[in-house]
């Protein structure tokens, strides 16, 4: 498990490009028959990816967690960004097609991933946060998400937000998770941007062509930096940082939030005139 530590905004300002990438960027999440995990001390979120081929992959990593099994004191949200697959939770199988999601509450002892066709593997992206109580396991399709339409063609940021693990859709302890699809011709996400002091966020970019990239913006609103990102990479965003990006083509991204507040609209908007 990769370990990342929290950053003070004053420390962040001293980092060069390489150091920013080492601290905030999660470059590799998927490789055949492996589970990759990254533990961040920013609200103690764990970001990971599982790509089962011929084998069933069990999520058994507990190094440094002080527990007997992964979800003993945690909850998890899983979204499939590959081909059809199956998540096995507490002995029950949950089939997940592309962009289907599964929420699994605290206390589930067995969690495993399998592809429906080993030659066309699933890719399970997941985010896990500490939990204080068990909540029911729920499978969610895109059709069951709460949809929000935002942006416009004129500002190149027309997009649809799919809220999956969200208080209005499914009960969780603190995890909030979903994905955003940009409309054809739109390349900006979350612009104008914002911060939310009561929770952190992680972005996972996907459906990006191999020859395309995203310039992900981060940092305090008055002293921003950027990270060049490619398909199926994730980035961590502290509560004091903006989180926005622009791509060389359209793309989608999964957002996952952890903190003391689940209110999606609880954010501090940053006027464009204040950006530096």
Q: Mean pLDDT, as a whole number? A: 94
CATH class: Mainly Beta
CATH architecture: Sandwich
User: What coarse outline follows from CA principal-axis ratios?
Assistant: globular
What series of H and E elements makes up the topology?
Answer: EHHEEEEEEEEEEEEEEEEEEEEEEE
Tell how many strands the DSSP assignment holds: 24
Computed over alpha carbons, the radius of gyration is 18 Å
Q: Provide the helix percentage.
A: under 10%
Helical segment count: 2
- How far do the termini sit from each other? 35 Å
Number of discrete domains: 1
Oligomer: single chain
Biggest sheet features:
7 strands, mixed
Name the poorly predicted regions: none
Give the CATH H-level superfamily.
Jelly Rolls
CATH topology: Jelly Rolls
